[in-house]
Design a protein that fits this description.
heterodimer; A: mainly alpha; 21 helices; globular; B: alpha/beta; eleven-stranded mixed beta sheet; 36% helix; 13% strand
Chain lengths: 585, 404
């Protein structure tokens, strides 16, 4: 949409897309904003590329892997790629179906909740978001308990009820991994697609219905194409997470020797002597695939207008699904059961056992696991406090930094913005664990004492969550029609005033949901931190995993339940205090 | 959402963090006594040593403040009081904490660290880290190379890594007063760098509910039976103890044994606790890497597990402990090391808590352990060759378990 011509300034074609010209200044500060922008760009480049640089260095390092200073360059590590092809293949084998399934689950749930007259929408919304608060390792542990071939609880039920010998399914398998990943990534798809759905102008759908198209035809021909960027964006995000996913393949795949890139890297790095070079090569080879995907997505959103938040007021219109409604409700509840209630229930059951067993006759109940974990296991408390602190820091600093970056990329004419967009989206193409590997090397070489502290984790989180945060904020930013800002300018407001009184309030729901998103992801993550934690900076995800490896399953179940419960408390508090759900405005 | 709501959010999260921080600030742990009271006095012969006749335990030199001890055979069961020099205790308490990196059984480690803390309450043990040795080695190397030394004491299941540290001059040379109670073959060469703590036996075990007695494996060769395919658990190559089995067994079962066993779809796990779990539940009902100390857990929890010590030969390994040269709390480290290696410490850690066979001859072997003198124990004869073979272990083992 073309803006009104202004006599006082030359109108560039760029102004037609509402871009802020960096040489105009913010509220008159001469060129300071220009410097600010350049500094931000440099910091972003440093944050992202310093670890990547060290990673590349590690890939070419064929010297003694235990001596960080003994670097010899060579191609030796690359020769090992054929050995790792099956790991790469396995990663795709689980990531692609899991992504498709997750997007389907998320879209269906979002459509049911936000576009139909289903009862109890806000309650359902809260329930469907619950899986996202659970660290994925908790879900993986629970499904290991539920679906192990011989002792899985569901299989035991099956045998008890039907008297058959075998198992109905085995979660310790590629299919099991796909299933569990898609359930938990489905919430992410729901959040992203749901946000877009709620922001849509229903007038377009209303016209379609008024003109005679049926409910499903409208959904297919109007809703879906308008949602395409959100659907594709979520698919790409989920794919990037799925292909680098660690918890689920670690718990469900390692003991049956089904390795993917992330668990392969862990096993290479944990050996003595560690194979950092091989790990770096493996990680970088994954980058080739995901980098291409990201490239195509960026081409996709560069063109076209997806403006759906306009200056006109609207009321969302819901479609009455009539006799389908109970079925849809049941579908939502099925999801909530499979993702949260049944897994947590199983873990709570296991946590009160003295030991896992198949024969119900020999069950011995004991509260000792909780006593051991809460009183004897000091690292658990440290982990919790660290995670909460990091969550706050990451979310707050992240929203500010990423908001600024989004604004520079999508709303300015600074020359570096194309490069900045590339830099900011770059971490998405690298598995988080590999990025953490690079960070480890980078910060050991730089003489700032961040190794083993929460500061290195903060840096890591800010780096790996850059794409997610920027995309969340810019997604909302792109939907805000610049005519609203220009309206303010026409009335005489300066750029700064327009920013503060029009843009930021319009973006506020998006900023809040980005804050909550960052808070949640930093609490539940594991693959970034597992390589960077030591004695004092332990966080929740790795502490559960380490305990799983070194303790007994019933103790881990108790630890997982305790930590999940204590994570739920601040998250639910945040939501209650915020008054509304993060996805609604 | 307006400013007021923002304020509410911040206050709410701040309060939650405060509550969590209060939990953090409370005393490190409620005292958790070891689950066993000291065993009543038994007149069993003093403890085991590997493949060697029981050496006569040296009579402990009387330390200030202790009564003179009777000869070994008449030592009643029960911990002899560990008597460190007051200077050492004062210096250690001044340092205020000890950081131990430990390579096995997290449940036992938590308990004996607790016991140490009860003995010396002013020395904090909160930074104890239990992970697989390889990860601990990586951390130790990273800390040393970035000059952020954090760890004081390192406990490892295998001596290969400790020897590696010794070669890199990263271990402290410390002649602990306790070393004189140990057979020299358990000490480092030259002595003073590290010492053997526990002797572990590796055998077969199976779940008696899931595996019928007639079908149960009684020897290493029985494991090659196809009916056990997919049912046998082993450690993965990140753990160090499978190296002992891999290296020592071909001498008694033949060089093609591992190749034949690799047809059995072995299931891999990270630790003895995991193997015990999966054994007890019946998910993987047989293991060929059962460690003797787990017999204590079996007894404590009443698990349906039976152990078999094959007549062909029982591989063994010795766990070791040493102090790092750049330990940030050297006196606390010495105090902990001495306590651990003392009769009192070993009695608590090995006998009462972990069910281990102590390398120290004057510590009882516990009712759950088999009598090692009656077994055909396998141990490395050439320590140098043993250390060198470790570098071939991982790729070989990965292939055997089917990881590649």
């Amino acid at each position: 949409m073309a803006g009104p011509t202004r006599a006082a300034e030359a109108v560039e074609p760029a102004a037609a897309t509402g871009r802020w010209r960096s040489d105009e200044g913010l509220g008159g500060w001469l060129k300071l904003d220009d410097v600010l922008v350049r500094v931000v760009i440099l910091v972003a480049i440093g944050l992202v590329f310093l670890p990547v640089g060290f990673l590349v260095l590690a890939a070419f390092n064929v010297g003694d892997q235990t001596e960080r200073t003994a670097i010899q360059l060579g191609l030796g590590n690359f020769g090992a790629i054929p050995k790792y092809l099956d790991w790469l293949g396995n990663s795709f084998l689980v990531a692609v179906p899991a992504t498709l399934l997750a997007v389907v689950i998320g879209s269906v749930l979002a459509w049911i909740l936000y576009r139909t007259t289903i009862p109890g929408m806000s309650a359902l919304e809260q329930l469907i978001l619950l899986p996202y608060y659970m660290p994925p390792i908790v879900g993986a542990l629970a499904w290991s308990l539920l679906g192990s071939e011989r002792v899985g609880i569901l299989n035991q039920f099956y045998r008890g009820i039907t008297g058959a010998e075998g198992a109905v399914f085995n979660t310790h398998s590629p299919l099991g991994i796909i299933f569990v990943m898609s359930i938990y990534e489905g919430t992410l798809a729901f959040i992203m697609i749901g946000a877009a759905m709620r922001s849509m102008d229903p007038a377009l759908e209303e016209s379609s219905i008024v003109l005679g198209a049926g409910r499903f035809a409208t959904a297919r021909n109007i809703t879906l194409p308008l949602l395409l960027p959100a659907v594709l964006g979520s698919a790409i995000f989920i794919f990037a997470e799925a292909i680098a996913s660690f918890s689920v393949p670690a718990i469900l795949g390692m003991n049956v020797k089904f390795f993917v890139v992330s668990t392969g890297i862990l096993s290479m790095v944990r050996n003595w002597p560690p194979d950092y070079g091989g790990a770096a090569v493996l990680g970088l080879s994954l980058f080739v695939f995901t980098g291409v995907t990201v490239f195509f997505y960026s081409k996709l959103v560069a063109g076209g207008s997806f403006v759906t938040i306009t200056g006109k007021a609207f009321r969302p219109r819901l479609i009455d699904m009539g006799r389908w409604t109970p079925g849809l409700l049941a579908l939502c509840l099925l999801y909530v059961f499979s993702a949260v209630l049944v897994p947590l229930g199983a873990l709570i059951y296991a946590s009160f056992l003295r030991t896992l067993t198949t024969s119900t006759a020999s069950i011995v109940w004991t509260p000792n696991n909780y006593l051991d974990v809460v009183f004897a296991y000091q690292p658990a408390r440290t982990a919790l406090l660290n995670s909460l602190t990091l969550g706050l820091l990451t979310a707050t600093i992240g929203v500010v930094v990423m908001g600024l970056l989004s604004w520079i990329i999508y709303r300015s004419t600074t020359r570096g913005r194309g490069l900045l967009e590339y830099v900011v989206m770059f971490p998405q193409s690298i598995p988080r664990m590999v990025m953490a590997l690079g960070l480890l090397w980078a910060w050991l070489a730089v003489p700032i004492g961040v190794y083993g502290t929460i500061w290195i984790l903060l840096l890591a989180y800010l780096t790996v969550f850059l794409p997610m945060g920027v995309r969340a904020i810019s997604g909302v930013m792109l939907q805000v029609d610049k005519s609203l800002e220009e309206g303010a300018r026409m009335c005489g407001a300066s750029r700064l005033q327009s920013l503060v009184t029009i843009t930021v309030p319009l973006l506020w729901p998006g900023l809040v949901s980005a804050w909550v998103l960052l808070f949640i992801v930093s609490l539940r993550e594991i693959s970034t931190s597992i390589l960077l934690v030591g004695g004092t900076n332990m966080v929740v995800g790795p502490s559960i995993f380490v305990f799983y490896e070194m303790g007994g399953f019933v103790s881990v179940a108790a630890l997982a339940v305790v930590l999940t419960g204590v994570i739920f408390v601040p998250l639910i508090a945040v939501k209650l205090l915020a008054g509304k759900t993060p996805v609604s405005s | 959402m307006n400013r007021r709501d923002c304020l509410k959010v911040t206050v709410g999260t701040g309060v939650t963090m405060l509550i969590a921080a209060c939990g953090q600030a409370s005393p490190p742990a409620a005292p958790a006594k070891p689950t066993e009271a000291p065993k009543p006095a038994e007149t069993k012969p003093a403890g085991p040593t590997a493949a060697a006749p029981t050496t006569a335990p040296a009579a402990p030199t009387a330390k200030p403040g202790e009564a003179a001890k009777p000869s070994a055979a008449a030592i009643p069961a029960g911990p002899e009081q560990y008597g460190p020099s007051p200077e050492l205790v004062a210096a250690a308490e001044k340092e205020g904490k000890v950081v131990v990196y430990h390579g096995s059984a997290a449940d036992s480690v938590a308990k004996f660290m607790q016991a140490f803390n009860e003995r010396f309450p002013r020395i904090d043990i909160g930074e104890t880290l239990v992970e697989q040795e390889a990860q601990l080695m990586a951390k130790i190397m990273a800390e040393t190379q970035s000059n952020q030394n954090r760890v004081d004491v390192f406990f490892s299941d295998l001596d290969t890594m400790m020897i590696d540290l010794q070669k890199r001059n990263m271990l402290m040379q410390y002649d602990s007063p306790e070393y004189k109670h140990y057979d020299p073959k358990f000490l480092s060469k030259p002595p003073g760098y590290f010492a053997g703590t526990f002797l572990t036996l590796i055998g077969i075990a199976y779940n008696t509910d899931s595996v019928k007695e007639a079908d149960a494996p009684k020897s290493w060769n029985d494991l090659l039976d196809p009916k056990h395919k997919g049912k046998i658990s082993v450690f993965n190559s990140s753990a160090s103890s499978p190296f002992a089995s891999w290296y020592l067994m071909p001498a008694v079962v033949g060089n093609d044994y591992w190749e034949k066993l690799s047809q059995q779809d072995l299931r891999t796990y990270e630790s003895s606790a995991q193997i015990l779990d999966t054994l007890a539940s019946g998910e993987t009902p047989i293991t060929m890497m059962f460690n003797n100390f787990r017999l204590k857990t079996v007894a404590d929890r009443g698990l349906p597990i039976k152990a078999v010590w094959p007549a062909e030969g029982v591989p063994t390994f010795v766990s070791v402990q040493g102090i790092l040269a750049k330990a940030p709390h050297p006196n606390a480290a010495k105090l902990f090391h001495d306590w651990f290696m003392s009769r009192e410490g070993m009695n608590i850690a090995a006998f009462q808590i972990a069910g281990q066979l102590a390398a120290r001859p004057d510590v009882e072997m516990g009712p759950t352990n088999p009598d090692p003198t009656k077994l055909n124990l396998l141990a490395p004869t050439d320590p140098d060759a043993y250390s060198k073979a470790y570098s071939e272990f991982k790729p070989a083992w990965d292939k055997i378990v089917g990881m590649r």
